[in-house]
Amino acid sequence: MSIERIRNLIARDMDAVDAVIRAKLYSDVGLIRQVSEYIINSGGKRLRPALVILAAGAFSYSGRYHFNLAAVVEFIHTATLLHDDVVDASELRRSKATANALFGNAASVLVGDFLYSRAFQMMVEVDNMRVMRVLADATNTIAEGEVLQLLNCRDPNVDEENYLRVIRYKTAKLFEAATRLGAILGNATPAEEEAMAVYGMHLGTAFQLTDDMLDYSGDYQETGKNLGDDLSEGKPTLPLIYAMRTGSDEQAAIIRNAIEQGGEGGFGPVLEVIQQTGALAYTRQRAQAESNTASAMISSIQDSDYKECLLQLTTFAVARNY
């Protein structure tokens, strides 16, 4: 089953999600509409809302609340992107100028706040306390992850355990929330709901680890990012952490200095050390382990096209080049 088949299976549902997104983006304030529509339409994979749809479908949900919750998840994700790009002083995302580069930092932060608050308005409409708790907890955890990542920047002493904690909080938590929400809507048993949530957490971790790897091996035309963007921001991602841990003292010093200086020492020497130490292969191995765990978590869920799509996503998480 290809990614295209996944898209085809949920195409009508995703069209309905897009309709909700466009309707809920409306504001009398023109700048809010302009910035929101720019970032929403900037070519993202819509993976997180798709997970809500797929998880709900796996439990034969037949209502319409999954469209609203999928849009809520996308709004929360988009708000984090707006804030992330300001914090990181990023100028490029998905081969396009970031919102802060076009509209300024103030507009990006404030429109991010609008999207967060609109998301909470929408989740109230579902009138389900469980749903509200999942999303409120996820949003709070994501914010903690953002702060943890900020503390880790330019710190070469961050170890693998602490870095994975950032991933679980900052990235994987929204994947986990998306799949849990679908299970809740589908009236899954407590065990099934927990299995689906853990699936989402491990899937999200696999996706982030692959992103870390692509920052040192990807193609700009595919990823929409320049190689070494994480290094330029002083982020000690897993390829760097592993290279420092297993390389020689001289190799570790090259990585350490690059993290502390935000890559100003040059990308070439760092990439050479990463390649010499097998850091990318190790990162892929860790991503594959997360992917395998995600697959195992939903093995006992009733077979369906939706379950097959969820399983296919675990393969895509590691095999992708964008």
Architecture overview:
By secondary structure, this protein is an all-alpha fold. It has a single domain (3-319), classed as Orthogonal Bundle (Farnesyl Diphosphate Synthase). The chain is 76% helix and 1% strand. It contains 17 helices and 2 strands. The chain has a two-stranded antiparallel ribbon with strand order 1-2. Strand 1 and strand 2 (96-97) form a beta hairpin. Helix 4 crosses helix 9 (160-185) and helix 7 packs antiparallel against helix 8 (129-152). The longest helix is centred in the middle third of the chain and has 26 residues, at 160-185. It is globular and about 60 Å long. The two termini are 19 Å apart.
Beta-strand share of residues: under 5%
Count of domain modules? 1
**CATH architectural type:** Orthogonal Bundle
CATH superfamily: Farnesyl Diphosphate Synthase
Q: Overall pLDDT, averaged?
A: 92
Q: Kindly state the percentage of residues in helix.
A: over 70%
What is the terminal-to-terminal distance? 19 Å
Unreliable spans are: none
Sheet with the most strands? 2 strands, antiparallel
Q: What name is given to the CATH topology?
A: Farnesyl Diphosphate Synthase
Treating each run of at least 4 consecutive H or I residues as one helix, how many helices?
A: 17
Radius of gyration: 19 Å
SS class: mainly alpha
Net shape: globular
- Number of DSSP-assigned strands: 2
Multimeric state of these chains? single chain
Strand order of the largest sheet: 1-2
How would you spell out the order of helices and strands?
Answer: HHHHHEEHHHHHHHHHHHH
CATH level-1 class: Mainly Alpha
